[in-house]
Specification:
- There is one protein chain.
- The protein is built from 5 helices and 6 strands, in the order E-H-E-H-E-E-E-E-H-H-H.
- About 7% of the residues have low confidence.
- The protein has a 4-stranded antiparallel sheet.
- Helix content is 24%, strand content 19%.
- Helix 4 runs antiparallel to helix 5.
- The chain folds into 2 domains: 70 residues, no CATH class; 65 residues, no CATH class.
Amino acid sequence: MLPNGHIMTSTATTDLQIPSATNEGNKAHKFQDLGSGNLLAVGQLCDNDYEVTFTKNKVLFNKRNNMKFSGTRNPTNGMWMVNFPIKNQLNVIIPYKPMQDAIKFMHAACFSPCISTWCNAITQGYFSTRPGLTAGRVRQYIQQNLEATVKR
C-alpha cells in the first residue's frame, strides 16, 4: 500500500545481481506503476547477512566486514539510490547534450551496427534504458554508409 492509500501490485519477479547475495537475496518484484526506479528490500538483504549503514549522504552494504556495494542519497527526494549491473544491459556513459552527439556515441559504443538492425533492436525494447534513444532519432542523426568497404 502506498502512502496515498492506493495499492500497487507486483507484475513480475526478477533476479538482481547483488554481489555475494544468495538466490533468495537476489529476488525482486517488478511494479509497472513505479516509474522513478525500483525499491530495494533492505530487510531481505539483512536476512541475507548484509549489514546496511545509512548516513546523511550514503548507504553502505557490507557482508562479513567487506563493503560489497554502496549508494548515494538523492538531495531532491531524500531517497538513497543504488545501481546494480543488469543482465544483458549495455553499460555506457551517455553524454546528454546535444542529442545528436549522444546518439552517435551510443551507435559507436555498440560497434556501429547496421542502422536497420539497430533500429529494429531499439523498437523491440533492447535499449529501453537509454534516455532519448529512439529509432526515429537514429534515422535522423546517423547516416547509413552505402559504400562497400574496400578489402585490402
